[in-house]
Specification:
The protein is mostly helical. It is 71% helix and 0% strand. α3 packs antiparallel against α12 and α4 packs across α5.
Length: 397
């Protein structure tokens, strides 16, 4: 009888929400969207605005997304090959001595850094779910993996992309800056966690203390023939690269199109024609108001460059799509590439991933602290990259 009553309760339809319940969120959203398109249309003209948005998105898809997807496929194949033949394990052992002094993490955390560098931020989460990995961590260290792994997400893609644009020294300086930003972000997050939950400083992340060095993640039995292992690694890694390339399409087309419309100006004639990459130059106008800050901190020589770190907050793939246009406009120099590499790699879209990553670890309530720590870490990474680039070039000239 009780089960039948429960079934009847389940079949009772939910009460419809009243109109007033939609006002706190629906009205502001509607006003923002209408206000944005009204502003763009009033400056560019409605037909030109719509044509520019469509043409920009289409050009980004053809000339940027597929280029990034190609890089993703190649780097994914190389990364899987490194995993298959123990290069990742070798790098992990070489980097292990640095983990404690720099990041206050156990040596095995270096495996997470290598994996996220070769792939993307979520790789650290899939790794942390393995008890053979997580048993080395205290809880405060385990939670800080979100910040630690994010700082190296898509690192290989960013490096290869920047080198492909004709810059060689600057991306490696940016890598050093991203590492410094990672140290700040990780340790700051650990401080926040211990301050909020002091007992996490002593509690283990998992109760499973069994296992040995032989069963660490990433070490698998070599049972297949050498050609088959090479072929499988290349194809599986390339397939992963395709998945990553598809995953960045929404970010590139939506975020980059919006940022470009707000960054670039009218055509060379000064009129709006509806062509791709026209815009209202709102972001540079705002940046000019505080340009001294970006020039002093990052060494930016043009206010348009502020669009890169803004876009990197949501998706580093989308941010990379801005670089070719910046180069064609003559706004880019080696310092900007170093800063872009540092802040792009360190932030790597953390606003869109931190919540999901901490939720999967079971500590969703710490998301604001993780975002604050990583914001500071990314700014620190850019500042270090700028200072280091200026120092190195001063001695090379």
């Amino acid at each position: 009888m009780e089960s039948q009553a429960n079934e009847k309760e389940l079949r009772v339809p939910a009460k419809p929400r009243s109109l007033s319940s939609y006002i706190p969120t629906g009205i502001p959203c509607l006003l923002i969207v209408i206000g944005l398109f009204y502003y763009l249309g009033s400056v560019m003209g409605l037909p030109n605005m719509l044509n520019t948005i469509m043409h920009t998105a289409h050009d980004l898809l053809i000339n940027t997304v597929f280029y990034l997807m190609g890089i993703c496929v190649v780097t994914g194949a190389v990364g899987r090959l490194f995993v298959e033949f123990g290069v990742v394990s070798l790098l992990e052992r070489l980097l292990r001595p640095l983990m404690g002094p720099l990041f206050r993490l156990p040596g095995v955390a270096s495996l997470g850094a290598v994996m996220t560098f070769l792939s993307d931020n979520p790789a650290i989460i899939s790794l942390s779910q393995d008890k053979r990995f997580s048993r080395y961590f205290k809880k405060f260290q385990y939670i800080s993996l979100t910040n630690f792994g994010t700082a190296f997400g898509m690192g290989l893609l960013v490096m290869v992309f920047m080198v492909g644009q004709g810059f060689y020294l600057a991306p490696f300086i940016g890598l050093i800056g991203a590492t410094c930003g990672c140290i700040v972000s990780t340790r700051l997050m650990q401080h926040f966690v211990i301050k909020a939950y002091p007992h996490f400083a002593h509690e283990n992340a998992t109760d499973d203390a069994d296992g040995s060095d032989a069963d660490k993640p990433g070490e698998t039995a070599e049972t297949k023939s050498l050609p088959i292992r090479i072929l499988n690694a290349l194809l599986d890694g390339g397939r992963t690269g395709v998945d990553v390339g598809i995953a960045i399409i929404p970010g590139v087309l939506i975020i980059s199109t919006l940022v470009m419309v707000l960054t670039f100006g009218a055509s060379a004639s000064g009129e709006y024609t509806g062509a791709a990459y026209e815009g209202v130059e709102l972001l540079p106008w705002l940046a000019q108001k505080i340009n001294i800050v970006f020039e002093w901190l990052f060494g930016f020589t043009d206010p348009h460059l502020v669009a890169f770190p803004i876009t990197a907050l949501g998706a580093v793939g989308a941010a990379l799509s801005l670089v070719p246009n910046f180069i064609s406009q003559g706004w880019i120099d080696g310092n900007a590439i170093a800063v872009f590499t540092a802040i792009g790699m360190c932030w790597s879209g953390y606003l869109s991933t931190h919540t999901a990553m901490l939720d999967s670890l079971g500590y969703r309530e710490l998301t604001p602290k993780a975002i604050l720590a990583h914001t500071i870490g990314g700014i620190f990474a850019a500042v270090i990259a700028h200072g280091l680039y200026m120092t190195v070039t001063m001695f090379l000239v």
